[in-house]
Amino acid sequence: MPPGTPTDHSPRDGFGSPLDATDVLVLADRIFRWADVRGWAGPDPYDGLTGPLGRLAVHRVLRQVVLQAVKRSRIDLRPVLGIRPLRTATAAGTAASACARLSTSPVWRERALRLGRSAADEQLSGRYSGLWRYEFDVQTRWAYYPASVPNLVATTFCADGCLDTGTLGDEAVRSLARGLLEHLHNGEFFTYTPASDVLVHNANLMGAALAARLARTGALPGELVDSLVEAARGAVEVSLDGQRPDGSWPYGRPPRLGWVDGFHTGYVLLRLEQAGTLLDVDVRRPLERGAEHYLRHLFDGPLPRYFADGRSRRDPNNDATAVRMAAWAVHHGFARADFPRAVLAAVVNRYPGLGAGTRAGSSSRNRPLWESPRWSAAPFLDALTALHAVLPGGRHPTSPVAAQPTTAAS
Q1: Residue 313: pLDDT above 70?
Q2: Which is more confident, 92 or 54?
Q3: In the chain, N or C: fewer CB atoms in 10 Å?
Q4: CA–CA separation, 265 and 252 (whole Å)
């Protein structure tokens, strides 16, 4: 089957198929309203350590057990464990960028500015001035980072949301640029956290794209601009060297991080393109190879796969990124024009607030995951506004600087 070819087993959504730009805009408005009425607060896949039991888990294994138990449980353990709804700056930043694509509308412009200001208010001061953090401790298979320290993913999505909405002043931009280089760059590549020495490709390219973008703001002294550009170019080369012969990127450099999944691959492709454009580096061939692998191995027809060539595993962030990437693929001629609408029809039924009788999570399994502002509503809003821009009747941004790729990540 050629890449980007929909098949006839995709489920239908309540709007019929094919969807047009107006239908997609209606979906975007509904999911925005669903999240906004809740103050963009809700569960998060990584909130397991915010409750009393999580705070008692001082060993790596215990932290991972608690976090994964909360994340994967068939029933919601949060009320029992005293885990409260979270409002994250990352969700606000992601949603701000999504709304900014529609800012020719006064309603969407107001939404974008409100969320951008919210993300800007969470910019760190003190030791890690200029950066952003998650509001929860995280224990993964490769690292632990507490809520007290920044990370590159939160910083990128928040920074993009603020830059897209013009809600950062010049001094805040300078603080961000200095913090990015001082705390999240190790001289070779951009690191996930200040203490990490592990190469994670999507984070490295997020850092490269953000550094390249900051260098273009006009708010920085020449010496700082030169340092940002040098760091960004070097980081891009590191990840280009990490592309495999089949066109894929592993999650990270160490062997234990060798898996390939959908949403991180999407982040790599989007950020590589952004960085290449801003740095005037020719990345066309790596993008073509990466896109071909992504479309062939991370979709089953229009249904996204979580891992390359794996069974379909429904995840709101992965599904949202698949819609976002299908729109991107059509815009660049990598997929047929009807492919993103088929992907949207295949995944839309589980997102909250999108039609009569549609509940968050069409099955009871892991419903809080689908009600997460950071992991579900914000990235899906981002995907919908990106899709709207490439459909007939929509508008695709013409400026490579304005067209920022955004999807909430872990």
Answers
A1: yes
A2: 92
A3: N
A4: 11
How far is Cα 232 from Cα 210, in angstroms, rounded to an integer?
Answer: 8
Contact of 261 with 251, CB cutoff 8 Å: yes
d(CA 394, CA 389): 5
Q: What are the domain boundaries of the chain?
A: 21-47+83-390, 48-81
Tell me which residue has tokens 């450099």. Answer: 253
Token match 């019929």: residue?
A: 16
* Dist CA 79 CA 37 (whole Å): 21
Name, in order, each residue with C-beta under 8 angstroms of 96's C-beta and a sequence gap of 6 or more: 112, 113, 115, 116, 118, 119, 161, 162, 164, 165, 167
Peptide linkage before 221 cis (omega within 30 of 0): no
CATH among 2.170.270.10, 1.10.1240.10, 3.40.190.10, 1.50.10.10 for 21-47+83-390: 1.50.10.10
Higher pLDDT, 285 or 58: 285
Closest CA to 319 of 359, 290, 291, 348: 348
Taking only the tens place, the pLDDT of each residue in 82-140 is: 999 999 999 999 999 999 999 999 999 999 999 999 999 999 999 999 999 999 988 87
Residue type for position 54: G
